[in-house]
Specification:
Low-confidence stretches: none
CATH architecture: 3-Layer(aba) Sandwich
Radius of gyration: 17 Å
Mean pLDDT: 97
Structural class: alpha/beta
Helix content: 25-40%
CATH superfamily: Thiamin diphosphate (ThDP)-binding fold, Pyr/PP domains
CATH class: Alpha Beta
Strand content: 15-25%
Bound molecules: thiamine diphosphate, iron/sulfur cluster, magnesium ion
CATH topology: Rossmann fold
Number of domains: 1
Length: 243
């Protein structure tokens, strides 16, 4: 038979729990494809964080450990130091990484740990019902900012890549998006680069990915993607910060 397309072996053929249209699913798939293309599926260990992606260990065919909220970089540090032949990655939301886990990520970067960090910025705490996250945009309405985020009382949105850019030990730092197919392809390229660097022992590699949460943003999928393009990309510039 002439096979035109075969799903990646890295992706387990089960129904996932993500809301329809949620870009977590797309990003999970991209990571699976990258692990297969780099032939590192059997040596990769994912550290799942707390958030909507907590169950991603059910979707990818590699080893996984679940970390408590915000602590994935610490768990990844231990695993990558002990098992040097493995490729260790974390997958963390903005509540997980930029709120409760902010000190973890800064110190893992300062130590230049040989890990991949995939940071999903959807401007909200998705899993718990859409509260304000550190990355929530100015004026954005959430469950806890019914009149919109006010800089005077809540501070401005945290720009994680810009914060990390000042740190010397980082091998690779890029912000990408998922709001159209071209951006998804760029996101895959960035993820692949990050995994290649860590596979080669070159050090801390971080990819921030702008992502949608149609359920808590109370928008349909099309309007959510448009909202990323028209609002998120203006606040969170898409670029390579370090390579
Ligand atoms: C120590 C601790 N504090 C708070 C929570 C509740 N909690 C679960 S998920 C979450 C935020 C998830 O948001 P994010 O990391 O942005 O992931 P998303 O669901 O948006 O992908 C919070 C605060 C928890 N599980 N553990
Ligand atoms: S709540 Fe938001 S982030 Fe979570 S699965 Fe649904 S759309 Fe995705
Ligand atoms: Mg989030």
């Amino acid at each position: 038979m002439n096979i035109k397309f075969k799903p990646s072996e890295a992706i387990i053929d089960v129904k996932n729990h993500y809301c329809p249209g949620c870009t977590h699913g797309i990003i999970n798939n991209i990571i699976g494809e990258v692990l297969e293309e780099l032939n590192i599926l059997n040596k990769s260990i994912g550290i799942a964080s707390v958030g909507c992606s907590v169950l991603m260990y059910d979707y990818l065919n590699c080893d996984f450990i679940s970390a408590s909220h915000g602590r994935a970089p610490a768990v990844a540090t231990a695993v990558s130091r002990l098992l040097k032949d493995r490729v260790v990655f974390t997958y963390q939301g903005d509540g997980d990484l930029a709120a409760i886990g902010m000190s973890e990520i800064i110190h893992a970067a300062l130590r230049g740990e040989n890990i991949v960090v995939i940071f999903i910025n959807n401007c909200t705490y998705g899993m718990t019902g859409g509260q304000m996250a550190p990355t929530t945009l100015k004026g954005q309405i959430t469950e806890t900012t019914p009149y919109g985020r006010e800089v005077d009382s809540h501070g401005p949105p945290v720009k994680v890549c810009e914060l990390l850019e000042t740190i010397e030990g980082i091998r690779y730092l890029e912000r990408v998006s998922t709001h159209n197919v071209r951006e998804v392809m760029k996101a895959k390229k960035a993820i692949k680069k990050a995994f290649e660097y860590v596979k080669n022992g070159e050090g801390f590699s971080f990819v921030e990915i702008l992502s949608i949460c149609p359920t808590n943003w109370r928008k349909n999928i099309y309007d959510s993607l448009k909202w990323v393009e028209e609002n998120m990309v203006k606040e969170f510039e898409l670029k390579v910060f370090k390579d």
